[in-house]
Structure formats: structure tokens, C-alpha cells
Amino acid sequence: MQVVTTIDSEDSAVDLVRTAVGRRLAACGQVDGPVTSAYWWDGAVETATERRVTFKTVAARTDELQTWLAEAHPYEVPEVLVSPVSDGNPDYLAWIRAEVGDPSPR
User: Fold this and answer.
1) What is the rounded CA–CA span in Å between residue 102 and residue 19?
2) pLDDT at residue 105 above 60?
3) CA angle 71, 72, 77 (to 5 degrees)
4) Model confidence over 28-60: pLDDT tens digits?
5) Least C-beta-crowded within 10 Å: which of 32, 75, 92, 103?
6) Virtual CA dihedral for 39, 42, 46, 48, nearest 10 degrees?
7) C-alpha neighbours within 13 Å on the C-beta side of residue 2
8) Which of 39, 36, 34, 38 is nearest to 10 (CA)?
């Protein structure tokens, strides 16, 4: 699974990645950016510079990662998008499963 969020600074993004990996909620995470985001907020169009964070995890850890992100994230309504990974390097996918202690069947 890939779980994506955005956050307002590189330091905050790196903190999210390091903490999620340290808690074994994700095997790894990447920080991209800066990216420019435009969105509706409180009745107006806002623009912000953010960092995109992509976590790699397994389905069995996704709910726990989402719950933790909702608690740890400074935004009132953080972006948290989850996408399944249907295929990839088998060795890499096995590494992800091993790093997060995937309890689900293969």
C-alpha cells in the first residue's frame, strides 16, 4: 500500500517519516517537493507550499497508519490518500512486509 499526505515543511515531513518508520507503521517513506497546492478553505481559494510524503506499508497496517497520521498531523483536515500496490519487485514487496511485520496472509 502507498499512503500519501502533504505537510507544510520539510522538517515536519521528515519527522512524520522517521516516526512512522520507527513505529513500524511503514517500511519507508519519501519526502518530495516543494509542491504548490491550491485548495478551497473557509470559503476562499488558498495557495500553499508543501512537501508530499509517501509511505510504503501493508494493508494490515494502513488503518493504524491513518489513525496515527490524523493524530500527529498539524492540519485540521490532513490529506491522507491510500492506494493499493498490485504489482512490483517481489523482493521489494517482501522487504516491506518484513519491515512492518505483516500479519496478513500473502
Assistant:
1) 18
2) no
3) 65
4) 999 999 999 999 999 999 999 999 999 999 999
5) 103
6) -80
7) 10
8) 34
Residue 64 or residue 103, greater confidence: 64
Closest by alpha carbon to 28, among 74, 85, 70?
Answer: 85
C-alpha separations of 3 from 6, 9, 44, 52 in Å: 11, 18, 27, 11
* Residue 67: pLDDT over 60: yes
**pLDDT tops 80 at residue 106:** no
Domains and CATH numbers, the chain: 2-100 (3.30.70.120)
Strand boundaries in the chain, DSSP class E: 2-7, 28-41, 44-56, 81-83
